[in-house]
Structure formats: structure tokens, C-alpha cells
Amino acid sequence: MDKNKRKAYIINTISIISLYLVFFILIQTKVMNKYFMGIAIMTCIMIIMAMSLNIVAGFLGEMALGHAGFMAIGAYSSAYFSIALMDTGFPLPNIIVLILAMLVGGIVTGIMGFLIGTPTLRLRGDYLGIVTIGFSEIIRIFFINFEPTGGAAGLKGITKLVNFNNVYWITIVIIILIFTFGRSKQGRAIISIREDEIASEAAGIPTTRYKVLAFTVSSFFAGIGGALYAHYQAFVEPSKFGFMFSIEMFVIVVLGGLGSLTGSIVAAIVLTVLPEMLRGFAEYRLLVYSLALIVMMIFRPQGMLGRSEFSLTKFIESLILRKDIKNSIDGGETR
After folding, report:
1. Which residue has the higher pLDDT, 171 or 308?
2. 14, 113, 227, 242: which is deepest, by most CB within 10 A?
3. 198, exposed or middle or buried, with CB in 10 Å at 0-12, 13-18, 19+?
4. 317 CB neighbour count, 10 Å cutoff
5. For range 97-122, the mean pLDDT
6. Long-range CB pairs of 27-30, under 8 A, 24+ apart, other chains included
7. Residue 54's closest CA among 261, 331, 236?
8. 329 pLDDT exceeds 80?
């Protein structure tokens, strides 16, 4: 590991721990009440959903508009598993139950992503988007009519296992995993398909296999996001996972920048917190929210960060450099 990477890891680790300590102090001192904690938890879940969608929409460059359907599969499968596990009476710590439920939700959703992705990824662009919308609606209608999961009334009796402490660290772990995946051999192969599929295939990259891999990994993390959502709300209903929710997630990815994971994080924070900040202006909330998106798309169509990533280390170094330049200029003027 070279010196620059070591420095980046140390700075990022300190920043992550410091941010957690700030939230911890705010919660302990009652500055953050349950309402604000709820916003923070939903922001973490939306970060996971946006980053997982960015694997397909950003890394692979395909239009996937059915992400809410995969979230629904993760939410229902994990909730059904945790209810069954709790009913056995076997004494397990809540965090273990949550981790097992997340894994079940992720694996089940990943399998569904593989089964759906294998035939549909032969399509491209708008056609793929239409097919993913169709599958998402099929999943939603299935849960509306599936009585074992409560049907249209929703699934009740889910134990609330998610709090800010565990969702924060779970989100950090998933961010690290997705960043690592993007920089791995498989992730770079997926990005090369986005850049030029014909050239990638000519170079010996099995494009179909890597497309399905991207879709499966994206679905897996969407399932984990769904599991966290189910165990935070302690109630799941099919109406939540409609077409517009998929569009919301896609807007976050586009606003942050297709292919930029840090962009997805920033956009998820902005688009989750902004509607809540505007709640006091109920009559104009959606108008201001929509106007902000339109202005952003006009003046910055590539998104906040485009395809680049925000580096905290480089940002700090640039601040130090500016300070040094300013000091040297000031010193020259005094002489």
C-alpha cells in the first residue's frame, strides 16, 4: 500500500468515526429527536438503494426503472424470515436476527435479479427500461394478491430491529463493498462494457456474463435496502413499491451523476432531506422540489459529480494548498 492510499484510508476512517460521534452526541443530548432520527435512517436506506441502482445505471450504463420491485422482494422475504425466526422462540440478539434477515433478503433478491436479468439484458436502452418497469409492477401486484404476506393490507407483526446505530454502520460497510466492487476486475469489466460493448467483447470480456453479474449484485444490495426498510417501519405494504418510487431512486442516481458513487450519496442525502425541510411550505413543497431538479438538469445535466468521485483527501489537500499560497502572497506583500 503506497503512502497516498494509506493517508486516504486514515482520513476517511477518522471522518466516518467523527460523523458517527457527532450524531451520537446529538442523539444523547436530545438535540436530534425521533423525527430527525427517522430522516437520518431513511437517508441511509436511500443511499444503499441509490448506490445499488448505480451499479446497473452507472457502471453498466443501462436504464433500469424497476428497482422498487427488487426492494419489495428484499423487504417481504426478510420480514417473513424474521417473523418465522422470532416465532421459534430461539433466543438470538436483535442484531444477529437483522443480519440474517438482511442476508436472506439480499440472497432471495439476488436470485430473482439473476433470473430476471438473464433474459432481459439482451435488450438495451428504453426497451430494457420498459421491461424492468413491467417486472416491478408484476412483483407489486403479486404481493397485493399474495395472502400469506398480508395481501393489499400489508405484512404486520415485523419486529423493529433497525435503529440509527446499526443502520449507520451497515450503510458504511455496504458503501465500502460497492466501492470495492467498482474497482475490482469485475467492476472494471462492467465499466468497459458501458464504454464500448463491441470493443469489450473483442477483447475477450464475456459481456453477457458481466451484465448479469451487475444486475445480480445490484439486486442483492437492493434486497438489503428493502430488509432495512421493512425492519425500520415494522410494516410493509405493496403500494409503497410502485413505479414512482423507482423513478425517485433513478432521479437520485441521475442527479448525483451516473457512475459516481459519491454523487449518489450526496444526491440521496439532498433528495431525502430537502422534501422534509420544505414540509413547512406544504403548498409549494413539490413545486420547489421539482424546480430544483429542473434547474439542476439544465445547468448540470451530467449530475453533481458527473462520473468523477469526490475525494476528501484531495479536498483537504487543496484547502491546505490554498492557505499556503495565500500565506506566501501575504508574506510577499509585507516584504
Report:
1. 171
2. 227
3. exposed
4. 14
5. 91
6. 27/164
7. 261
8. no
Tell me the pTM. Answer: 0.89
To which residue does cell 429527536 refer? 33
> Grid coordinates standing for 113?
435479479
Q: What rounded mean pLDDT belongs to the chain?
A: 86
* CB atoms near residue 258 (< 10 Å): 21
Contacts 24+ apart (CB under 8 A), 326-333: none
SS3 of residue 155 by DSSP: strand
Residues 42-59: b if buried by 16+ CB within 10 A, e if exposed: bbbbbbbbbbbbbbbbbb
With contact defined as beta carbons under 8 Å apart, do 102 and 227 qualify? Answer: yes
- What is d(CA 180, CA 295) in angstroms, rounded to the nearest whole number? 33
Phi, psi (5° rounding) for residue 90?
-70, 125
Q: Closest by alpha carbon to 96, among 85, 84, 88?
A: 85
CA distance 73 to 75: 5
Which whole number is the average pLDDT over 258-282? 82
d(CA 135, CA 70): 9
Q: Is 90 left (phi over 0), alpha (psi -120 to 50) or beta?
A: beta
Residue 232 has pLDDT above 80, yes or no: yes
Q: CA nearest 71: which of 118, 121, 122, 135?
A: 135
Average confidence (pLDDT) over 187-205: 88
Helix (H) or strand (E) run with residue 86 in it: helix 67-87
* Topology (CATH level 3) of domain 33-282: ABC transporter involved in vitamin B12 uptake, BtuC (1.10.3470)
